[in-house]
Amino acid sequence: MNTYLDSNKFAQQTVLTIYAHADDEVLPAAGTLSLMSKTGWNVRCLILTDGSLSSSDIKGTRHQEAEAAGKIIGATYEFYALEECNFSTQTVIKVAEEAIKRWQPNLIITHAPQSEKYGHRDHEVCAIAISNVATRKNIPLWYSAPPVFLRGFEPNFFVDITSVIEEKIAAIGCYESEMSKAFMQLDAILVLSRFWARELGQKDGYFEAFEIARQWVDASFFAAMANSNKQVLTQE
């Protein structure tokens, strides 16, 4: 992760997250986005729906909650009002292409593709659409972990968020309207973050998991690795 978060090399780069519902962005990635923001990344979060079909008794507050979370993790938001459980991949593709044209992201993060058997229909449609756009536009793409039912998700990249775990908890806590859901509870957040640590064989710490779907590097990447190795050898 150091290559991505080096403040000197990647200052002013933009990460664009695209998620179906407000809170989808903080559950799997609040820690990573906070780290990116702290190291100079421009963090943009695009939310496709307004959450009007949520099972919560508290309606109409999701966008305000998202903006409060954004202040904690250093992200700015843009909201759409697509009809939940009824928008198409083509609609999301159009929205994403417009956002990419405005912000010129260096990286996109979105839902992991997951069939409706395990995941939310909106998450799956969003994942398919963004995968299409990222492929055609040749933009690096990460899939974030589903909040529940991890079947089909195969992470190959993990971020140590131990230093910002309090920010992650606080950002998720901004979504008061969703707090009745089991996966929003503090114990669930910590257990999943510790689960990813154990996947890496780490006894301590908290992690977030991603699946790198598309990535490319230039020659400077390998030069940086070579220089890093030289420094290690010199120190030894």
UniProtKB/TrEMBL annotation:
Q: From the Swiss-Prot or TrEMBL record, give the protein name.
A: PIG-L family deacetylase
Which PANTHER family does the annotation name? N-ACETYLGLUCOSAMINYL-PHOSPHATIDYLINOSITOL DE-N-ACETYLASE, N-ACETYLGLUCOSAMINYL-PHOSPHATIDYLINOSITOL DE-N-ACETYLASE-RELATED
Gene Ontology molecular-function annotations: hydrolase activity, acting on carbon-nitrogen (but not peptide) bonds, in linear amides
Q: Name one Pfam family in it.
A: PIG-L
Per the record, the domain of life is Bacteria
